[in-house]
Amino acid sequence: MPSYRIVRVQQDSLHSLLQSTPISVQTRCEIASHLWAHQISPSASTVGGDDLDAYFRYYTEQSDLFSGSTWAKTHQDILDISSLLQQDLRRGELKEKFRAMRTSTQSSVQNDMLESSIDLTIRLLLMTRVGHLPNQFSAYKALLWDGQVSLRESAWSSFKPRGALDHEHVKLTKIFTARSLERIAGIKIKWTNNFVDHLRILDDDDTQVAIFHHALFLEAYTLSPGLVDETLRTLALLFPATDETRVWFKKAASTEKLDPKLLTCGRLRVEDRQINEFKFWRDRLVILKQIFDEKEPTSWSQWLHDRRRGLQRYPFLLAAAALLFAILVGIIQCIEGAIQVYKAIYPS
Q1: DSSP assignment of 233-253
Q2: Where are the domains of the chain?
Q3: Which regions span the lipid bilayer (predicted)?
Q4: What is the value of pTM for the model shown?
Q5: Which 3 state secondary structure label does DSSP give 255?
Q6: Per-residue DSSP letters for 143-190?
């Protein structure tokens, strides 16, 4: 992460309370530009106020969760802490610097409130769960920053390439998309705001997978060029730019409030869909593809749309058609027999 000095933007709106809504487009762009180290203008042709909706729903949600337990009260407080976080300090060093730059009154802030302020800022900066709120349970993973290393090193340990699983026979075919996961295999997409949960299977029955949908955040923020690029390629793999995907995604987005930028990740060429092209997310892709391949259709709709096994599915379809035909013939014969009996009893 780049090193930043404390930047205090002289805008009254940045000094408004975190819980004050709605946040203006200008303020959104100021906040996002600082947190992502990427200039975002309200007049930009590719990024406007509406494009930031998905991220700022998350921003407001997290601020509300920490309400009353943090020292940070305004947007500017978050920007001040984020500037320190981007200096690769250890947690103890960060707190010392923070106290040193505050006034004598502010430097006496309680340690637990400062810790919570740091956790909240990390969540907004990295879109990754850090810390645990009282009386809150979550099935999602959390990033552990014990303070012995910098935040950057701790975050990297969660994302560094694994590649431990056998992947020689894994083929990421065109049919391997998020739409097919739900439509054919019955694997439900659980949209997540927690980056470290991307592509993670969430239950023991292998029926739910988490997908991080914040493409605009990924495109704008330089967490790590290699990691960001590969994550965007996993989104292009699962959400190819096709008419079918657009129709399916827009239906989901209408209720889930998803990042529309997801539909602009493009499509992968054959050579880009090779499993060896993925390092950070390879193991999770391997697991998800194996689950997808092993899931058998459980409804007629799934059977009709299943193209995973090519010609292997036709004997089953022929057998089903033959059974349906036999049932139909049987019904017709029963009707004819009933008519003949009726005529025998009532010849006239």
Answers
A1: HHHHHHS-S-HHHHHHHHHHH
A2: 12-159, 178-303, 314-345
A3: 316-342
A4: 0.80
A5: helix
A6: B---SSS-HHHHHHHHHS----S--TT----TT-SHHHHHHTT--EEE
